[in-house]
Design brief:
CATH architecture: 2-Layer Sandwich
CATH superfamily: Skp domain
Largest sheet: 3 strands, parallel
Shape: elongated
Strand content: 5-15%
Distance between the termini: 32 Å
Order of helices and strands: HHEHHHEEH
Helix content: over 70%
Radius of gyration: 19 Å
CATH topology: Protein Binding, DinI Protein, Chain A
Strand order of the largest sheet: 2-1-3
Number of helices: 6
Length: about 150
């Protein structure tokens, strides 16, 4: 179940930085491009470890609830429905827990991009050559934001 949580985290990370279709055309027009390792940013967030512990606990609880509810059901279709419902509940909890972390990362990316005069930020793994790596700057910005809260 932990690998499922990690997969969801990776997918959520991918959602917060979108590569626009016009990125390369814009680069030709003189835009400055930054790159970021979004997975590193998320996993180094000060609240990430606590969020993972909370998700693991919720995951175990939902798994136990699904097993107990499924055991009470006689009909296979109803058992499958109960399990689907528990998985959906878990997905909603994962989104609720990860949303503040992802929002912090987005805010930090925007702040660093503005400070450095970058107009496009791409996922580092998608870029073969070039771009200004702002990963560490974003990590530092998140730490500063956390101190202000």
């Amino acid at each position: 179940m932990f690998s499922r949580i990690l997969l969801i985290v990776v997918l959520l990370v991918g959602l917060f930085i979108l590569i626009p279709d016009t990125a390369f055309a814009a680069a030709a027009a003189g835009d400055k491009i930054g790159v970021i390792d979004s997975q590193e940013v998320i996993t180094k967030h000060p609240k990430f470890e606590a969020a993972m512990r909370e998700l693991q606990g919720i995951s175990r609880k939902k798994e136990e609830e699904a097993r107990a509810a499924a055991e009470k059901e006689k009909e296979e279709a109803r058992k499958a429905q109960v399990i689907r419902e528990k998985r959906m509940e878990l997905a909603r909890e994962e989104q609720r827990i990860m949303e503040p972390i992802i929002n912090d990362a987005q805010t930090a990316v925007r702040a660093v991009a503005k400070k450095k005069g970058l107009t496009i930020i791409l996922e580092k793994a998608s870029v073969y050559v070039g771009g200004v790596d702002i990963t560490e700057d974003v990590n530092q910005e998140i730490k500063i934001m956390a101190l202000r809260k």
